Fold this sequence. Notes:
single chain; Rossmann fold; 2 domains; 4-stranded parallel beta sheet; 10 helices
Amino acid sequence: MKRPVRIGFLVPPGNPTAEPEMIRLTPPGVTVHFTRMVAHGEAGAHAGQDERNRTQLAHLDENVELLAMVKPNVIVMAHTASSYTLGQKAEAELVERMRKKTGIPFLTAFGSVLKALERLGAKRVALGAPYAYDSMMKSKAYLELHGLEVPGYGVLENVVNIYDETPERAYDLGKKVDTPDAQAIFLTGVGMPTLDMLGRLERDLGKPVISSSSAMMWHALRTAGVTTPIEGYGRLLSLP
């Protein structure tokens, strides 16, 4: 009997969104598995975000070793902001080192976003983030470093904790950052719930809308050889 395809996710502590959103996106024949990364301080708060990112990265080897025990087909670091902290060279080195360590493909949430935008044919992307403004600007700079234009960008106002946000607020952020020049909308931050608004925002704006969550699940499934279309969460997940 053929075993299910297994996808492993490395999730920051305190994030209540990643597991239920990934489970909702899991097609038949696939199972999802989770390990929590290590960080200290108030999870989801703006203050101390970069320090928490670095702590998570410092403990990543042991987390990957634990997740590799379930023999997933692919492992995903489900935290977009870690890539902004790492930088392009260090992120590429991390991906290769983890792949060699386990023999399992290793993906980052941001790398998944790049693949998703490429698949959608989008070179100009509007960016929305639930981060502090300076952290959002790191996101913008990182997209531009990878050859993308960012004609519209902005932050979600009055955030106390990213993990307390709602799909409606994510929807409003997407509308806020859209510009006529943008070919797609990207809402960064795995901790911000987005699944319930992606399809509606796409219909209202008439262009693709992706989030870190939708991009990393699409990339993980395609990397594992699963091409089952998933409807209702934006056009990306319906594409092979």
